[in-house]
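Researcher: Quick test of sequence recovery. Tokens follow.
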């Protein structure tokens, strides 16, 4: 626990000022975090970033993460973002032929889906910050209070397992407690500064959806680790694991925040 707290303080002291500043600094940090996250995911399947599929995955990821102003430049000079992604997919499939199926369709499918999973989530970190600092802080507090509420309420009152095949320690009571804590946090945000909507009912419903899907994001990461028989996605954050272990909920919450509330 002590190691987790020390790591959380140091990571927060680095990450939060970058989020507050935003702009190019956040974009650079997002590229770094997303690339590490993709590396962690590919490593679960024993794929290397230094391989041809790994390099194609990184290229696709970096294309996905391009902010709007760079995307406009790309479309004016070469291809649209989606056209470039489609070309990369064709290169992936061509590589299965070149290697005579040593790299299989399953391998490239995993690489492509991994890139979409990481790329879309982290792309919306950039997009959400452009909408305003409030939205990032709202998302982070919803995730933190959901996680904390689920942990402490689950510890105190949890009896029924939520999904033991995926995450044996999570309970139904803890999950509901996490959502309740997120609602309380959201109401505080609404009373202090109702930036998303002036309708409290919509605000609360949106928060419930985000809290639930934040937990699903956590379970998705747990399912991946259990399937590939790894304890943590990485070891870059002592006491916490890897980048995906810390950002798994955010990868689900940020896109949905933009779809349903912003």
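Model:
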């Amino acid at each position: 626990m002590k190691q987790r707290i020390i790591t959380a303080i140091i990571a927060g002291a680095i990450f939060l000022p970058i989020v507050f500043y935003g702009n190019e600094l956040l974009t650079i940090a997002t590229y770094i975090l997303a690339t590490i996250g993709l590396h962690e995911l590919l490593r679960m399947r024993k794929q290397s970033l230094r391989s041809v599929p790994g390099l194609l995955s990184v290229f696709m990821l970096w294309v996905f993460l391009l902010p709007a102003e760079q995307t406009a430049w790309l479309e004016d000079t070469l291809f649209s973002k989606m056209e470039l992604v489609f070309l990369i997919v064709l290169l992936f499939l061509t590589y299965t032929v070149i290697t005579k199926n040593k790299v299989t369709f399953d391998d490239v499918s995993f690489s492509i889906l991994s890139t979409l999973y990481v790329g879309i989530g982290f792309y919306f970190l950039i997009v959400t910050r452009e909408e305003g600092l409030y939205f990032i802080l709202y998302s982070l507090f919803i995730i933190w209070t959901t996680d904390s509420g689920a942990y402490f309420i689950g510890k105190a009152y949890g009896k029924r397992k939520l999904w033991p095949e995926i995450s044996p320690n999570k309970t139904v009571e803890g999950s509901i407690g996490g959502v309740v804590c997120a609602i309380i946090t959201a109401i505080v945000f609404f009373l202090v500064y109702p930036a998303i909507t002036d309708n409290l009912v919509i605000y609360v419903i949106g928060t419930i959806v985000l809290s639930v899907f934040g937990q699903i994001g956590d379970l998705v990461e747990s399912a991946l680790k259990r399937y590939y028989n790894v304890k943590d996605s990485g070891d870059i954050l002592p006491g916490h694991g890897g980048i995906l272990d810390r950002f798994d909920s955010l990868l689900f919450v940020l896109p949905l925040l933009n779809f349903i509330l912003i």
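The radius of gyration is 19 Å.
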